[in-house]
Every structure is written in structure tokens, then in C-alpha cells.
Design goal:
By secondary structure, this protein is α/β, with parallel strands linked by helices. It has one domain (11-293): Alpha-Beta Barrel (TIM Barrel), CATH 3.20.20.330. The chain contains 12 helices and 10 strands. The chain is globular and about 45 Å long. The chain starts with 10 loop residues before the first strand and ends with a helix.
């Protein structure tokens, strides 16, 4: 499938898969998050992918963000069962894509912090160095690299060492394309404090990398972060703009989907060519992106 922008000037990604699954009634209070449905109710994942394509998304991102070999083995699965569940995440997205009449499937490669399930994906505070991260990622990477996905979505990367590990994995699989998307903590830096510009330089000129950018980031930081990216096509898919009130145990500051769509037009004008949503965004956010860019 082509990774070229369509008539809107961008490729429109989907939104928060787990967010929509929860809206459909799924209980995702689990270390595996949406990946637990690969074991329990894969039909709901298929339904969520269908809904995002119907809303105007060009790209479905698979439910493999937290679906690592190690995570499934921690649940009692043996290696070949874990591999089959990761393959299933791609098969579901491919089925939804084909039913919709076209589009792309991006196989999600979540960070090591997602496996830890302790918030480290937003800090980059890891107990593994670059070599350890390379070894941890490799089993799932090999499964997804051999799948029918169109490319790998290396996303919510909070650590420079993890980015270096991913660069090495790309070298090992020269026939695989990917986007690389970092978690930004402000308008210039990723979660561990490394300047985004330095992280992006790891992938500059790499023909396997279709885009570099940010996700799981506050919308207010996106334009500034786009300004840090000069070498590769740019991808952005921020959160809705809400913040979690731990005392009241609720989300506050809902970003209106229409406002999100209007912001997407600004991100496109600033240089982004892949645009979508991350946590707390819905099919309606994607519908508004297409309406504002169309």
C-alpha cells in the first residue's frame, strides 16, 4: 500500500484504539490493556478498526502495542501461542482494511515501558540499556516484520537508548518500513529529556523510515515539536488534550473533536503529512480531521 498523502494532503491515522474499545463496553483494566482482547474477544478489536475506517482513517494501527512475547508468557502462554496472538493483531486490522476497500495497516511496536506497566513509557526511566532493549524488542519485532502489515509503527518511544535499539532492529530487517514516533514531554524534548531533534537524527536519510514525529503528547506541544523535525516526513498523533485528575479519578479538559480537527489543519500547514489521534481520541476526532482537511 502507498504511504503517500491523499487528496487532503496527509495520510489520516486512526485514533485511540483502547479509548474506542472502552466506549464499546470493554473493560481494559489490565496490564495488557487492549491486547488482552486478543485472548478474550478479538471481534471487538475488529469492530473498532472498522469504525475508524468508516470515520475516514487511512491507516489502522494494530492492537499489538502491549502485546509482547514476554507479556503473554507472563500470562502462561508458550512462545508459539504468544506469536500467534501478535499475528492475530495484524490479521484483524488487515481484515478491516480489506472490508473497507483499502488503506494501510501499521503494526504497533510499543515501548518497553508499556510492558512494565508502571508509567515508564512516559518517563523513559528504564532498567535496561540499549543492548537490553534491543534484545527485549527483537522477538516481537521479528513476528511483526514477517507479518502482512504494511509497515511497523514504532510509537510512544520515551528514551534515546530505545530509539537507538530500534535503529539497530531496522538495520537487521532491511525490507521492513516503519514510522518512528516519540513521546514529547514539552515543545522540544522527548520523555527522558533528550532533544527531539537529536532523536530524529538517528533516522535521517533512512529509506526504511517513512516518517518521524510524536504521539501520546499534549496537542499544545505539537506545533513546536514539528519545528524540531526537518529531515523526514513528519507524523503527529497527539492525545485529546485531557488531563487525569488523580484525586477525582476522572479526565478533565476534554478537547472538542471539532477543535482537534481544526488543530490538525494547523499541523498540516506546519509540515505534518501523517496526522491522527492517540489516547482519548475517538472516531469522531478522526471524522473531524478529515472534515477539516478535506
Amino acid at each position: 500500500m502507498s504511504s503517500e498523502p491523499d487528496e487532503t494532503g496527509v495520510l489520516i491515522l486512526d485514533g485511540g484504539l483502547a479509548t474506542h474499545l472502552e466506549a464499546l463496553g470493554c473493560d481494559l483494566r489490565d496490564d495488557l490493556w487492549s491486547a488482552k482482547l486478543l485472548m478474550e474477544n478479538p471481534e471487538m478489536i475488529l469492530r473498532a478498526h472498522r469504525d475508524y475506517f468508516a470515520a475516514g482513517a487511512d491507516v489502522a494501527t494494530t492492537a499489538s502495542y502491549q502485546a509482547s512475547i514476554q507479556a503473554f508468557m507472563r500470562r502462561g502462554h508458550v512462545v508459539h501461542e504468544a506469536e500467534a496472538l501478535i499475528q492475530l493483531s495484524v490479521e484483524l486490522a488487515v481484515q478491516a482494511r480489506d472490508e473497507s476497500g483499502g488503506g494501510m495497516v501499521a503494526a504497533s511496536v510499543g515501548p518497553y515501558g508499556a510492558y512494565l506497566a508502571n508509567g515508564a513509557e512516559y518517563t523513559g526511566d528504564y532498567d535496561l540499556d540499549e543492548d537490553g532493549l534491543y534484545a527485549w524488542h527483537r522477538p516481537r519485532w521479528e513476528v511483526l516484520a514477517g507479518s502482512p502489515a504494511d509497515l511497523l509503527a514504532c510509537e510512544t518511544i520515551p528514551s534515546y537508548a530505545e530509539a537507538r535499539a530500534i535503529a539497530r532492529l531496522l538495520e537487521d530487517t532491511p525490507n521492513v518500513n516503519a514510522w518512528v514516533s516519540f513521546c514529547g514531554r514539552d515543545g522540544e524534548h522527548i520523555s527522558d529529556g533528550t532533544p527531539l531533534e537529536r532523536c530524529a537524527a538517528l533516522f535521517a536519510g533512512n529509506p526504511q523510515v517513512v516518517a518521524v514525529g510524536v504521539n501520546c503528547t499534549a496537542p499544545s506541544h505539537v506545533k513546536s515539536l514539528i519545528g524540531c523535525l526537518t529531515e523526514s516526513p513528519i507524523i503527529v498523533y497527539p492525545n485529546s488534550g485531557e488531563t487525569w485528575d488523580a484525586r477525582q479519578r476522572r479526565w478533565e479538559g476534554l478537547a472538542d473533536p471539532m477543535e482537534f480537527g481544526a488543530a490538525a489543519r494547523e499541523w498540516r500547514d506546519a509540515g505534518a503529512v501523517f496526522i491522527g489521534g492517540c489516547c482519548r481520541t475517538t472516531p469522531e476526532h478522526i471524522r473531524q480531521i478529515r472534515a477539516h482537511l478535506g
